[in-house]
Design goal:
The chain is mainly α. About 70% of the residues lie in helices and about 0% in strands. It contains six helices and no strands. The longest helix has 19 residues.
Length: about 80
């Protein structure tokens, strides 16, 4: 959708999320990976808002990426983290 207003809005949202993650000292790659792995579990507005960079707890992300936890999570467990 290059050159279309919807594409511009999508790009602005994506870049804003990255810059917010940086401003909060989140590791950008880890935040995006956390977001993309958890977004499929979101079903309500509150679920989506909890995934915004300003709402994510850095300790929660680190727990999510610990090797033991990450390798053993099911879809339902991912939603709870």
């Amino acid at each position: 959708m290059a050159g279309h207003p919807n594409g511009a809005n999508a790009s602005a949202t994506f870049y804003s999320s990255i810059e917010t993650a940086k401003a909060r000292d989140l590791k950008t790659y880890r935040y995006l990976r956390f977001l993309f792995e958890k977004i499929f579990c979101a079903s309500t507005s509150a679920d989506y808002q909890a995934l915004l960079a300003q709402a994510v707890d850095p300790a929660q992300m680190e727990y999510f990426f610990s090797p033991v936890v990450y390798q053993t999570l099911t879809k339902n467990e991912l939603k709870g983290i």
